[in-house]
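Predict the 3D structure for this chain.
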Amino acid sequence: MTVTDAARESVSSGLEQDKKDGHLSVSHLNPPPSYDLADHPAPTGREEIWRFTPLKRLRGILDGEASDASLTWTSTLPEGVTLSTISQAEARELGELAPNDRPSALAAELSGGARLIDVPAEAEITEPIVIRLHGESVDDLVWSQLLLRVGNFAKATVVLVHTGSARYSATTSVLVGDGATVNVVSLQDWDDDAVHLGRDSILVGRDAEVKHTAITFGGDVVRLNANVEYAAPGGSAELLGLYFADEGQHLEHRLFADHNQPKTKSNVLYKGALQGEKAHTVWIGNVLIRKVAEGIETYEENRNLVLTDGCQADSVPNLEIETGEIEGAGHASATARFDDEQLFYLRSRGVSEKEARRLVLHGFFNDLIRKVGVPSLEEQLTATVEEELARNVLRAGQ
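Done. Predicted structure below.
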């Protein structure tokens, strides 16, 4: 039996036990996985999972039009790591996690094949695996299917960078072997007119550790899902996010941690800032603790900083708990303007208002940026925050 087969059998056995016990098999915020498009009808906007998304601004992605367009891929692959193209059938055989919403189901059906990044068992990849994806025009409709497979006891960091413009819908499966340590970073630095719908689903092996970071600055509409489930006990997942919305942007991040195994952990921390008329951010966090998931620990937190008038930040944390035999579970959410006391403290010590605002925002993001784990990218993020500030907030102090 392969590692993937064993993982699937373990997950299936946990779900079957849930059914026998008469407990939830799915979350109300996470539709059941299925490759059948009939199970993922086109949304009207009245559905709970779509009510925040501006459907008219998706430029027809959800219609499911076939397209041969693609993004330009540039890769940096350390020794031992391979990148190949496989068929959709092979992707399923390798253990790809089935789509659980319409965009990912369309991507799986219309991509024409999948890219496979393979990290062999016990490999310790010290340099980041970097994949740069660039689009040329928002007129291009691009479907994408990606598998990242990390073998048992391997260590690797993978960075996906999205630039340019396109209408892009992608489904990504991250298969993490037993005892592996994986860091996945997804950076959305699109042009202002891009539309990006994405789903990253992660299967965490026994005693494995996974960190997933979603960073979103660019794009007109970006809607990303990060889902985690566990193949065996002992797995740990850290889900991080950073976003900065400017005038007119809609940036939406949805998180789902499915504790379907005992003795597992998840920790979620997302931070966002908004500035400019009609800037809109959405954060939906959800944790499902199944009856079989005794002894788990989980916490989810979202913080938003509103920098100007005319912005809207929606933040909805959720916990669905089917067993009381847990180590700990909680959530927190807050949306606020600049802290007047912090600004007053800095101003009273001779710091200009412009500089005070810059320092407060850096303090807000800095602890999260330091968790990214890729030094060159951490420097880039700090610089990008500076650029975002320069568009609006610094002028407010002049």
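The chain is about 20% helix and 40% strand.
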